[in-house]
Specification:
The protein is mainly alpha-helical and 123 residues long. The protein has six helices and no strands. α1 runs antiparallel to α5.
């Protein structure tokens, strides 16, 4: 059941990352740091954002705004799914306290990890 809980959560989140490759995903923290720095100071060093923006033909400040919006949406979505996953995990762990084997099995079988995504306002 623990594997099912984890895998179903991952199945909800994975498609949201599907357009990005592992190398780009690995740069998300740096993109976020540079985006927040650019938001505070348009002259801040931001080599990755400046390179991406230049290749796209857009202003680094605009790209920084998009990165920040995407990050906020991802935090909301992934946090919501992770919270649900942990609630299912808590339910599973609580079955360890059930003494009667048949009751414990029934309690485990009653756990049906179905995940719902939150609504996200992405302006």
């Amino acid at each position: 059941m623990q594997t099912e809980i984890r895998d179903r959560a991952e199945a909800v989140l994975s498609p949201l990352r599907s357009e990005y490759g592992p190398t780009e995903i690995a740069s998300w923290d740096q993109q976020w740091q540079e985006a927040t720095a650019l938001s505070a100071d348009p002259a801040a060093p931001a080599p990755l954002i400046r390179a991406i923006a230049g290749a796209r033909g857009m202003a680094p400040e605009m790209l920084a705004q998009r990165i920040i919006a995407n990050r906020e949406a991802w935090v909301t979505i992934s946090g919501h799914v992770v919270g649900q996953r942990l609630a299912y995990q808590d339910a599973l762990e609580s079955t360890a306290a059930i003494v009667d084997d048949a009751e414990a099995v029934a309690a485990i079988q009653a756990i049906n990890p179905i995940y719902a995504l939150p609504e996200v306002n992405n302006a």
